[in-house]
């Protein structure tokens, strides 16, 4: 019994550390829930992948943020950018299912994350998806 409990605790910890819990928390609570994991502000939106990616790209363009690279593997698109103040920002748009999409935003340098800037980016995306 003790071995089973330890295994279960280890699995839960592993899920929390890999970020899957953020998806579950966001999907379970709706589009207003954020998770802050390792400098990334993660939010799950009740919207398909294409509209969410389009909203993210639109916000980036409207804010005059320079896109350095955009890569995709078919499930997740990563957009590496640089803000006008030369602060790096990474936006990841990931398919959760046909009606839910996860967006993570990391703004700033290692150890100097700008959570408020990431939160503001999410607010702009949410308004475009309304």
Q: How many β-strand stretches? A: 7
What is the CA-atom radius of gyration, in angstroms? 16 Å
How far apart are the first and last residues' alpha carbons, in Å? Answer: 48 Å
What is the CATH class designation?
A: Alpha Beta
CATH architecture: 2-Layer Sandwich
What assembly state would you assign to the polypeptide chains in this entry? single chain
* Secondary-structure element order, N to C: HHEEHEEEEEH
Can you describe what's shown?
The protein is α+β, with helices and mostly antiparallel strands and about 130 residues long. It has one domain: Kinase associated domain 1, KA1 (TATA-Binding Protein, 2-Layer Sandwich), CATH 3.30.310. The protein is about 45% helix and about 35% strand. The protein contains four helices and seven strands. Strand 1 and strand 2 form a beta hairpin. Helix 3 packs across helix 4. The longest helix has 17 residues. The radius of gyration is 16 Å and the shape is globular. The N terminus is likely disordered.
List keywords for this structure.
130 residues, alpha+beta, TATA-Binding Protein, seven-stranded antiparallel sheet, globular, disordered N terminus
Task: Characterize this entry briefly.
The protein is α+β, with helices and mostly antiparallel strands.
List the helices and strands and how they pair.
Elements lengths: L1 H17 L1 H10 L4 E4 L2 E6 L3 H14 L3 E7 L3 E7 L5 E10 L2 E10 L2 E2 L1 H15 L1
Antiparallel strand pairs: 1-2, 2-6, 3-4, 4-5, 5-6, 6-7
Helix pairs in contact: 3-4
């Amino acid at each position: 019994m003790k071995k089973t409990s330890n295994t279960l605790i280890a699995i839960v910890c592993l899920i929390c550390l890999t970020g899957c819990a953020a998806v579950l928390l966001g999907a379970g609570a709706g589009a207003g829930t954020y998770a802050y994991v390792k400098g990334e502000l993660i939010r799950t939106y009740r919207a398909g992948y294409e509209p969410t990616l389009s909203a993210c790209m639109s916000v980036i363009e409207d804010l005059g943020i320079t896109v350095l690279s955009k890569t995709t593997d078919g499930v997740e698109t990563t957009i590496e950018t640089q803000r006008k103040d030369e602060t790096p920002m990474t936006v990841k748009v990931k398919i959760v299912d046909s009606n839910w999409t996860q967006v993570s935003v990391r703004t700033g340098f290692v150890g100097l994350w700008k959570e408020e800037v990431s939160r503001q980016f999410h607010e702009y995306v949410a308004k475009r998806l309304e």
